[in-house]
Amino acid sequence: MARFPRGSSAPHLLYSFFNSSKSTRPSPHSPTSALLLGNFHLRQFSSSAVRAKDDKEPWWKESMEHLRNIGISAHIDSGKTTLTERILYYTGRIHEIHEVRGRDGVGAKMDSMDLEREKGITIQSAATYCTWNGYQVNIIDTPGHVDFTIEVERALRVLDGAILVLCSVGGVQSQSITVDRQMRRYEVPRVAFINKLDRMGADPWKVLSQARAKLRHHSAAVQVPIGLEEDFQGLIDLVQMKAFYFRGSSGENVVAEDIPEDMAAFVEAKRRELIETVSDVDDKLADAFLADEPISASDLEEAIRRATIARKFIPVFMGSAFKNKGVQPLLNGVLNYLPCPIEVNNYALDQTKDEEKVMLGGNPEGPLVALAFKLEEGRFGQLTYLRIYEGVIRKGDFVVNINTGKRIKVPRLVRMHSDEMEDIQEAHAGQIVAVFGMDCASGDTFTDGSVKYTMTSMNVPEPVMSLAVQPVSKDSGGQFSKALNRFQREDPTFRVGLDPESGQTIISGMGELHLDIYVERIRREYKVDATVGKPRVNFRETITQRAEFDYLHKKQSGGQGQYGRVTGYVEPIPLGEGSKFEFENMIVGQAIPSNFIPAIEKGFKEAANSGSLIGHPVENLRIVLTDGASHAVDSSELAFKLAAIYAFRQLYTAAKPVILEPVMLVELKVPSEFQGTVAGDINKCVRSILSLTPHFFAFFLLPQVPLNNMFGYSTSLRSMTQVRQRFF
Ligand SMILES: Nc1nc2c(ncn2[C@@H]2O[C@H](COP(=O)(O)OP(=O)(O)OP(=O)(O)O)[C@@H](O)[C@H]2O)c(=O)[nH]1
């Protein structure tokens, strides 16, 4: 589910408050040899050829070129974990394939948490690494549910490339849109993988055109499937112009054959489409194409690589992870088309030079710069995931947390393989590793102390839902607080607060599932049974127009009086422009002594914590202080703070406040016979229906529904459809 704006509804406008260059260096590789794996010709790039090109290239460049940091992201149930399981199997990281919700009850490697295995969903992103064809590939498998979207955010923040998995039946689904938006936000080059070609109704060409239309992808297929659904047999590679079949009990023998004759014309047309699409964004290929020159496999491959890394093109792969078809070519695609760490421009902010942007070149001989992007409480203390952008980190080294100024020793350094870890002595730029026992917060930057750089942090969406939670037994209060503290540290979208009226603990998060999972984890991992209140939507308030204020707070009731006058205006910050509260002091001269200004800002901030419409926080506003007055004796911080609070109350109505509420993009798949009932019912509580697509004996409905109307909806939908609906 994604969030979209909600339209107006007098008297208060209601809309969503959730707004929530890379280099195009030509491929360093020139294909110089072919490696036979099974019967499958993989392109192998000779490193000696790379070296021969330029003797002055640094020693570490080659190992960087043989490194890929990728994420696998998609809509719920598209097959991310199943795909990762195959990748780990073919690369020799695991020796047996276990299915998500498989009959053997073992579960996939990357879903290591008990709850994940029971529910068959990914809750936490998991990191692993493998080696393919001489390249090290670090992989992060992310959850599909919007409730765990922070896991996608932090993974994409630190990855160099991504696989966007799409279901060949479901096509571009609600969460595919969200994930794709996240990939854009972090400027992550990507390849698409249309999975589940074995399923009834699989239509990769429809999915491709949906991706072009709905995701505005400039994309083309680099493969053509041989057969579909039950008859799905293999894939034709449009670059190599070969047919590949996946033989053996787990598809491990990839056999290359000639293209079936009856598919030759179709394949030619699709290759031409691929060349034309890449030529649109790659001048070198366009020149050859327009001159009608023959285009070799390596020319085309290099052009695809350039265009993909420049984020101008998305190559589309296909297959069926579950039926073990198409995974090895996708892995080759990752090596061939996604960037290595030094092909991605990463920047840090130099804190000694007013946050000047500094480009990090990925040099392991440079000063250490590493970003802590994820925390986890492990058996041995806090486990911190780090992406190293420059320099080397060694076990036993002292590093400095630039955000806190603390100098910390690195007691233990590990590489993660889902929930297993391997101790290592050192890791260099480009790598993703984890450290134990280093106290920090998510988003902190570590250096060796010689530079004061910080990396920009990730986008953290605001929680949309809250509920009261209380331990059943008073004795378990300690464990309960421990659990809440831990989860809050690990997950920036999980917040804990107190209801000022009832004194109850309120937990807030990204949805019902998110909060349910934490309540369940409190029960399982901390043995605390908790009673849970009714979920509440986190509404917000905002203003819609500029308003002036001029408030004098004056009190003379014996003793020292209070005197403070504040003058200025407030204006809305457009939704989606990042900042939620801004305060600017534009006073010229000393109308208000500068030591009182922070108190004024504090007063406005405090007042904005609770809008007068429904008492929810007021966001997206800029307060500008232009003038004021003070008294030599009676002015104080308190007087100015109170003046700001009263000024806010005075201006609020004039600024035409409105209420904001979270709106979800919901995806429903309902059997056709219930179309009328369900569409009629949902119309009552939605703002709009984005699409209604028939699909065999069912139809897909994509309505935008205020979150507040969603509580209990799955139950009512279930009864309307006699338990035959799908609801994410
Ligand atoms: N028919 C078919 N089923 C598949 C394929 N890939 C995955 N599945 C099934 O789809 C379901 C979801 O697969 P997962 O791998 O858990 O999907 P996911 O995207 O990781 O799921 P979340 O992380 O929970 O969003 C499982 O039952 C898989 O067995 C495929 O290629 N074909």
TrEMBL record:
Location of the protein in the cell: Mitochondrion
Alphabetized InterPro entries for the sequence: EFG_II, EFG_III, EFG_III/V, EFG_IV, EFG_V-like, EFTu-like_2, G_TR_CS, P-loop_NTPase
Domain of life: Eukaryota
A GO CC term assigned to this protein in UniProt: mitochondrion
Residue ranges constituting the Tr-type G domain according to the UniProt record: 65-342
Any GO BP annotation: mitochondrial translational elongation
UniProt keywords, alphabetically: Elongation factor, GTP-binding, Mitochondrion, Nucleotide-binding, Protein biosynthesis
Pfam families for this protein: EFG_C (PF00679), EFG_III (PF14492), EFG_IV (PF03764), GTP_EFTU (PF00009), GTP_EFTU_D2 (PF03144)
Record SUPFAM superfamilies: EF-G C-terminal domain-like, P-loop containing nucleoside triphosphate hydrolases, Ribosomal protein S5 domain 2-like, Translation proteins
Molecular function as annotated in GO: GTP binding; GTPase activity; translation elongation factor activity
Keyword RNA-binding: no
Entry keyword Ribosomal protein: no
Residues annotated as transmembrane: none
Binding site for GTP: 74-81, 141-145, 195-198
Involved pathway(s): Protein biosynthesis; polypeptide chain elongation
Record family assignment: Belongs to the TRAFAC class translation factor GTPase superfamily. Classic translation factor GTPase family. EF-G/EF-2 subfamily. Belongs to the GTP-binding elongation factor family. EF-G/EF-2 subfamily.
NCBIfam families recorded: EF-G, PRK12740.1-5, small_GTP
Role this protein plays: Mitochondrial GTPase that catalyzes the GTP-dependent ribosomal translocation step during translation elongation. During this step, the ribosome changes from the pre-translocational (PRE) to the post-translocational (POST) state as the newly formed A-site-bound peptidyl-tRNA and P-site-bound deacylated tRNA move to the P and E sites, respectively. Catalyzes the coordinated movement of the two tRNA molecules, the mRNA and conformational changes in the ribosome.
Name the UniProt record assigns to this protein: Elongation factor G, mitochondrial
